[in-house]
Amino acid sequence: MSDIEQFRQETRAWLEENCPVAMREPVRGFDDLYNGGRNPEIDHPDQKVWCDRMAERGWTVPHWPKEYGGGGLDQEELKVLREEMRRITARSPLDSFGISMLGPALLHFGTEEQKLEHLPRIVRGEIRWCQGYSEPNAGSDLASLATRADDQGDHYLINGQKVWTSYADKSDWIFCLVRTDNSGSKHEGISFILFDMDQPGVEARPIKLISGSSPFCETFFDNARAEKKNLIGEEGKGWTIAKYLLTHEREMISSFGAPPKKSVGQMAVESFGADTSGRLANSILRPTIARYQLDTLAFGATMARVGDEAKAGQGLGAASSIFKYYGTELNKRRNELNLAVGGEVALGWEGEAYRDGVISRDWLRSKGNSIEGGTSEVQLNIVAKRVLGLPDA
Amino acid sequence: MALVLNEEQMMLKESAAGFLTQKATVAHLRALRDSADERGCSDDVWQEMVQMGWAGIAIAEEFGGLGYGYTGLGLVLEQVGRNLSASPLQSTVLVSATLIAELGSGSQKEQWLSPIAAGEKRVSLALQEGRHHAPEQTAARAVADGDDYLLSGAKVLVLDASLADAYIVIARTAGEAGDSRGLTAFLVAAESAGIVLSRSSLVDSRNVGTLTLQDVRVPAAQVLGEVGGAWQGLSRTLDIANVGLASELLGLSTEAFERTVAYLRERKQFGRVIGSFQGLQHRSAELFAELELARSIVLQALQAIDSGDEQLPLLASAAKAKLCEVAQRATNEAIQMHGGIGMTDEHEIGFFIKRARVVQHTFGDYNYHLDRFAQLSGF
To answer: Are residues A221 and A320 in the same domain?
Structure first.
């Protein structure tokens, strides 16, 4: 038996034995994901069991190196693990910004000591991380951020305010962009630092969104303490790390628009009926839906093509620069169509008949997709300047 | 299948680009137009294309072709679109050779595909009758007369009509207009008695003609496939043809876009290059995104032809509809962003918008294919 086949058999047997039955049910939404942390939100006790068992093998982050607690799997093994998890519809054991955002930055820019200190705790789901980027006066123009870090010898004192900090009220540590120097251009003097949220100088207040949920916070720092050993990269060179991470974030947001099982067209036929030729009995809405589905198909093909080109060693094509922009705009179109197709039912906010407003709340939440992580307009600026070579104004 | 070009395909693409940017450019097209060239393309250029194997690129090796598949032909057509190169590649290779391969008997394929691959024969499909592409609505009639058929009817938009040695005429042997059953494909020698050909002058100045058939006698042996059973092969051929035309539109749109962006980088107004204005930057960036989607859906559809994917009808209509939309936007923006110079015949950008609309229309436009895409998607 080949090594990989043996790996598959062992993996299959281990998953069968260790994945709790409840963790083989598909997640219903973001709330069902397990995020770990010092005080984890637990909907089902098996969430923690499943996370701990997977973490022991490093399989909560199977592609990270073993010395930092990861699974150390190569591409082939990773593919097998994913296939075997899919086979039993196993849930992801742990989802966190530590895995998707801070981890890649630490692996790329962190010192050996920093990696050894923080990465294993991310793998084990012990610390939940949040991202301190945007400020009230630094949104699209992120580099004009003003939160100050004053040098106190072995530590910094942090003063200022962040906004749109995802889950800051539930997070243990923050990776934060701060200003350590005001003398140069706005891109210089920014530093990337990590610190504990559990201290008197930190306060996180949830922001209620138009969708009714509160995934984001305003976060205030009043002489909060950050140890110098937790400065990532050089002081004043944090903008490079910030840009690196934004790329990761944009890829994440652009994948929100993954099409659900039933197409909008099929839902529309259920809602409006069809004529004798099988065409939707709403001749005005029909081409709008067709255009949406056509673009969704072509966008999916584009993501596949860019992935395949990268795998074939042809590099990451310019097409990847449109993912964030196009994916989020598509998702907004989808949500508007959900309203048009759903009619009165889609406008429901609360109550069983409206499934607690899932359609309208998703629709409202989708408006933020083309704002967070770089607005559509900023993305278009980037394409125009970096891809098309058009000059600055 | 991975949505990526392999090394061999990349080389084909580059060699096609290299040849066409030398030998069959917009300047050549202009010269053909201005000299009112009856043939609408250069025989010398066509013979060079034949020598490079393009005439047989998608024809099976047993019939003298390269057996290279439609992805290869699509890559060549993309470069044809970039340069607006005129040749019988679409009429003979993309459409007619495909239909013969789909419907023909072994001996018919022997008789026609080998000479096509060798550049010795040119064949064109005579299908459309009314203003719009509607193959089920075919009304041209074929009536049995002994061992022959007598064909009567009128056909428009016959590509390279005056160059063709033979036409594949789609006529009705049974049923009524609107039925997909009862259609038959006839291989008709161009010089047959009863055919009147008149050259049409369309906006793109290419070789296109109208055929009038009056009791044209065609031996039964010249029927391609089953009498009354052309639909399936015709339908697949039209899918392939539309993916090929989508490839041409991809090249055409990309070239028009790149020329426009280059213009935005150099044209100055108000003391600065106009490409620095955000209004133009965002429109350009959006168009870039659409072109990337267009490129992906064309490649996916081309691969679906070669892999025998049963989703081909849906993907073909998706590719054609998307490319019609993108080509329209790219050429309209090209004229607008070029400003006054874009309205002049002297500038080349106008050739792109003219060719685009003819290719968009041929074998079904945006509205036709978006409707078909929706139907095949179940709504």
So the answer is: no
Write down the pLDDT at residue B112.
97
Q: Is A124 inside a domain boundary?
A: no
Residue A100 within any structural domain of the chain: no
Longest CA pairwise span in chain A (Å): 79
- Structural domains for chain B: 7-121 (1.10.540.10), 124-224 (2.40.110.10), 231-376 (1.20.140.10)
The reply to whether A111 falls in a domain is no
Question: Does A267 share its domain with A225?
Answer: no
Rounded to whole angstroms, the Cα distance separating B195 from A297 reads 44
Q: Provide the shortest C-alpha distance from residue B22 to chain A (in Å).
A: 26
Averaged pLDDT for residues A210-234: 96
| Domains: count for chain A | 3
- Tokens read off for A91: 């849930």
- Residue A253's pLDDT is 62
Q: What tens digit of pLDDT does each residue of B59-87 get?
A: 999 999 999 999 999 999 999 999 999 99
A229 and A276 together in one domain? no
The residue among B331, B317, B296 whose CA lies nearest residue B365 is: B317
Residues of B in contact with A265 (CB under 8 A): 374, 377-379
Please indicate whether, in this complex, the C-beta atoms of B276 and A393 are within 8 angstroms of each other. Answer: yes
Contact A81/A58 with Cβ under 8 angstroms?
Answer: no
Query: Model confidence over B192-250: pLDDT tens digits?
Result: 999 999 999 999 999 999 999 999 999 999 999 999 999 999 999 999 999 999 999 99
Rounded to an integer, the average pLDDT of A61-89 is 94
The list of chain B residues with pLDDT below 50 reads none
Residue A244 inside a domain? The answer is no
Q: What is the nearest CA distance from B3 to chain A, expressed in angstroms? A: 5
| Contact A280/B at CB under 8 A | yes
CB distance from A281 to chain B under 8 Å? no
Are residue A278 and residue A322 in the same domain, yes or no?
yes
Which range marks the domain in which residue A203 is found? 129-236
Which residues of A carry out catalysis?
A: 249
How many cross-chain Cβ pairs, A to B, lie less than 8 Å apart? 142
pLDDT of residue A32: 79
pLDDT digits 0-9 by tens, A141-166: 999 999 999 999 999 999 999 999 99
List of chain B residues whose C-beta atoms are within 8 Å of the C-beta of residue A377: 282
CATH number assigned to the domain comprising residue A189: 2.40.110.10
